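Hey,

Quick one before I head out. I ran the complex with magnesium ion overnight. Inputs first:
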Amino acid sequence: MFEEKPDRRISRRTRGERTKRRQRYLLSSANKNKNNAETFVSSTESLSHSEESATENNNFFTWNEPAVHDMGNNLSNASTSKPKDHLYKILVIGDLGTGKTSIIKRYVHRFFTQHYRATIGVDFALKVLNWDENTLIRLQLWDIAGQERYGNMTRVYYKEAVGAFIVFDVTRRNTFESVANWKQDLDSKVQLPDGSHIPCVLLANKCDQQKEGLVTNPAKMDEYCRDNGFSAWFETSAKDNINIDEAARALVEKILEKDSVINNDKRGDQFSITRDSNPEPSGNKCSC
Ligand code: GTP
Ligand code: MG
């Protein structure tokens, strides 16, 4: 005869109930830190199942979640102040070793290391922004390994993204030459529900080092961005924490401009995660 144990009750919760509990926890974590303009909530999880990242993230990511916008509405209703809650999937792409993971670590964890460990497949991180008193924005950052450009998974990873960073290394000219390929790959594989390209910001990373190539000429970079459909470009340094918050803010602003288009999409599986599948910036930047 089956004897019920107290902890069994947890596993009897439906997925919807578990999701709501996680969302309530997430909102309360964010509210506790409301004095901070930006609040870190979660960390990274890798499809490669590294021990470290999988245990760090169990609270926030599960597979086959229901529509995130629905979850967001539930979350809003649970709060007395009814903040608007947006969850945006953001891609971070670019050649090997250009600093994608470092940028995310700097942005989310406020941390930098010289140690290079190539990303395998994709990692995730979640950044929560208290955008204004009525708006909570969660950025689900998809850190896609540089080597993935030669694989056939990018279509899967790009699915339902609403914004992207393309990163190149200012010290290596060939990583800038690849930018056009990444942009073309992106535009051909993901669009907003109205068919337009997703907002994309170009990051000229490692600007703490000697630059080479077009990036030494900001006017030419502005022109390049306009011609190639970038919303903006920034010189960044994950090492010295230059322009990373500013670049993220510029991308979010562009996404918010498209929010009505994004929210009008009624697909039920939007933003689901499956295993299968205006502050003044410093340094060089342009908004095209
Ligand atoms: P993949 O995962 O292989 O695609 O690489 P990645 O783009 O994630 O690069 P990663 O962030 O791992 O950084 C590669 C190397 O560049 C590491 O040794 C970092 O410490 C270094 N690096 C990253 N950003 C900067 C920066 O802004 N300045 C300097 N000087 N080094 C950086
Ligand atoms: Mg990486």
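Confidence is low (pLDDT under 50) at residues 1-11, 29-79, 266-283.

Talk tomorrow,
K.
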